[in-house]
Design a protein that fits this description.
Length: 253
């Protein structure tokens, strides 16, 4: 039995455009064609699509997914075991995040002021005050640092919540572009990088394209930043840096 591209899109919860893209790049080529040349997918195709979507959800770039699935020595059961381990780790992390969010909600209900570390507890073990001395030493004499201190000094818990949600949304969009195989120098990726720059400029300090490229390089050079971005999707730090550089070149050339 075979299925049309529309049926498969409905089964998998993806768009027809996504399936066309997977076909175009050779990631998921339908095993059959109708007499009219339309794509038809068999059970083996659906199994492969399931594997693709598992790896995509776990943050693997599409080229890495293709390499994993096309490895002639790979055992399908090994794929499932690996995905199960990764998903279990993801579930554990999300459970901790949910508990931290509940803690923040309860604190707000009771009128308790959270410490800076508690505000960012949902991001793991990162303590924003841990690097305060380093930040002051590296950038304390800059206008950007002083401007950021002035702006954020008046931020309330609700302000920080909105800031976090907006920044997360930008990072997720960039991660989705990377996962879909969109080049870092594409219009969509550069537009998202520009939104990233404007967000920093509107929230913390005036961020020129030159300063933005410095930040991009730091995301890759400093393993702490790299780990933060790669926790969203593996390879995101480099992809974001490349999109930032391409966007800066677009605006300064």
């Amino acid at each position: 039995m075979s299925y049309s591209v529309g049926q498969v899109a409905g089964f998998a919860g993806v768009t027809v455009r996504t399936l066309h893209h997977y076909d175009d790049i050779g990631l998921l080529v339908p095993s059959e064609r109708s007499h009219a040349g339309h794509r038809r997918y068999g059970d083996a195709d659906l199994d492969r699509l399931q594997q693709i979507l598992f790896y995509r959800e776990l943050g693997f770039p599409l080229d890495e997914v293709a390499a994993l699935l096309d490895d002639p020595e790979a055992d399908p059961r090994a794929h499932l075991r690996r995905q199960h381990e990764l998903l279990t780790a993801r579930i554990e992390k999300l459970s901790k995040m949910a508990a931290a969010v509940e803690h923040a909600m309860e604190a707000r209900r009771m009128g308790i002021n959270l410490t800076p570390g508690e505000k960012f507890e949902v991001f793991g073990d990162f303590d924003p005050e841990q690097y305060e001395d380093e930040v002051r030493e590296r950038w304390g004499d800059t206008d950007a640092y002083r401007q950021s201190q002035r702006r954020t000094a008046s931020y309330t818990k609700e302000d920080w919540k909105r800031v976090t949600e907006r920044f997360d949304a930008i990072h997720r969009r960039m991660a989705d572009l990377m996962a879909d195989g969109t080049p870092a120098d594409s219009g969509a990726a550069m537009d998202t990088a520009e939104e990233h720059r404007r967000f920093i400029g509107g929230t913390y300090y005036d961020c020129s394209h030159e300063m933005h490229t410095c930040l991009g390089e730091m995301y890759v050079a400093d393993p702490r930043f790299t780990a933060t971005y790669d926790a969203i999707r593996p390879g995101l730090a480099v992809y974001l840096r490349d999109a930032i550089l391409a966007n800066a070149a677009r605006h300064t050339s």
